[in-house]
């Protein structure tokens, strides 16, 4: 939208300075069609003005724009609310391992048509894709609630056990609210070891957090189905047994699970940078437990 001042510059340059429309357009930074339109409007206004004044009322009239007679907008606020409601239901199903019962875009479009909305499949598809892309790109860590969420990860530790260097897996849990930590050493990162770590951690906590957060480790994610991920049967069984929800981080989005990743590095350094040789695995675990208890006590 141009200003009244620019419109007046156009008319003054044409009538009083005798400049061409081409030079006026270049001088004021407007298109030739815009300059031509305002000059023609003024000439028409002069024909109708019987007072024959040097400056017509058109000089002080703000620029006008023709109203477009386009089609009614299909993606209304009501439609947006309906689509977002269905996407939220899909999110709930993903969190409860009901991936195969989600609404696809074609299903969302059909439901909108059934409700009487006149909207094309392409419009629905483009909006859903924008919403999904926005959710993946933007992640805002909400303020942690006491006891609601716990994060899990595993990290490698190299220790000398009975005079032999071995690579062990260290399972680590962290409560984001209090930064309470739990760690346990295993021979490998198998499903049995991961399940055992959950059992030991919950026994130590003496309560079950509402949400357990994981990245895309092979013991948690069975496979990728397009942009969706299928949780392994072992982890489904653990979550059903203890009645907690599974939340998976987006691929390559480590900021969504930052507490536990820092805890893995922190515990590994605090414990095994000082001592890395033990008589047996039990001695190494006892030393790790003692270190973690001290860290928890010093928060």
Automatic annotation (TrEMBL):
<dbReference type="GO" id="GO:0003677">
    <property type="term" value="F:DNA binding"/>
</dbReference>
<dbReference type="InterPro" id="IPR012337">
    <property type="entry name" value="RNaseH-like_sf"/>
</dbReference>
<feature type="domain" description="Integrase catalytic">
    <location>
        <begin position="142"/>
        <end position="299"/>
    </location>
</feature>
<dbReference type="GO" id="GO:0000150">
    <property type="term" value="F:DNA strand exchange activity"/>
</dbReference>
<dbReference type="InterPro" id="IPR009057">
    <property type="entry name" value="Homeodomain-like_sf"/>
</dbReference>
<dbReference type="InterPro" id="IPR036397">
    <property type="entry name" value="RNaseH_sf"/>
</dbReference>
<dbReference type="InterPro" id="IPR006120">
    <property type="entry name" value="Resolvase_HTH_dom"/>
</dbReference>
<dbReference type="GO" id="GO:0015074">
    <property type="term" value="P:DNA integration"/>
</dbReference>
<dbReference type="Pfam" id="PF02796">
    <property type="entry name" value="HTH_7"/>
</dbReference>
<protein>
    <recommendedName>
        <fullName>Integrase catalytic domain-containing protein</fullName>
    </recommendedName>
</protein>
<dbReference type="InterPro" id="IPR001584">
    <property type="entry name" value="Integrase_cat-core"/>
</dbReference>
């Amino acid at each position: 939208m141009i200003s009244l001042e620019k419109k007046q510059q156009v008319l003054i340059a044409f009538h009083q300075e005798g400049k061409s429309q081409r030079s006026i357009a270049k001088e004021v930074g407007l298109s030739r069609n815009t300059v031509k339109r305002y000059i023609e409007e003024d000439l028409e206004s002069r024909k109708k003005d019987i007072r024959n004044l040097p400056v017509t009322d058109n000089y002080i009239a703000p620029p006008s724009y023709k109203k477009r007679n386009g089609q009614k907008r299909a993606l209304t606020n009501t439609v947006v609310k309906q689509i977002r409601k269905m996407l939220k239901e899909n999110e709930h199903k993903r969190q409860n391992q009901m991936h195969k019962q989600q609404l696809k875009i074609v299903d969302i479009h059909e439901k909108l048509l059934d409700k009487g909305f006149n909207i094309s499949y392409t419009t629905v598809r483009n909006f859903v894709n924008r919403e999904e892309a926005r959710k993946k790109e933007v992640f805002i860590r909400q303020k942690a609630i006491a006891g609601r969420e716990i994060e899990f990860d595993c990290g490698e530790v190299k220790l000398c056990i009975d005079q032999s260097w071995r690579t062990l897996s260290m399972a680590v849990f962290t409560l984001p609210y209090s930064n309470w930590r739990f760690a346990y050493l295993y021979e490998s990162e198998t499903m049995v070891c991961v399940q055992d770590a959950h059992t030991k951690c919950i026994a130590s906590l003496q309560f079950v957090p509402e949400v357990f957060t994981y990245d895309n480790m092979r013991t948690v994610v069975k496979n990728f189905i397009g942009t969706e991920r299928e949780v392994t049967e072992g982890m489904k069984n653990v979550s059903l047994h203890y009645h907690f929800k599974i939340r998976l981080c987006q691929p390559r989005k480590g900021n969504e699970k930052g507490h536990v990743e820092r805890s893995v590095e922190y515990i590994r350094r605090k414990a095994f940078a000082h001592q890395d040789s033990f008589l047996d695995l039990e001695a190494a675990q006892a030393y790790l437990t003692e270190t973690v208890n001290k860290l928890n006590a010093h928060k």
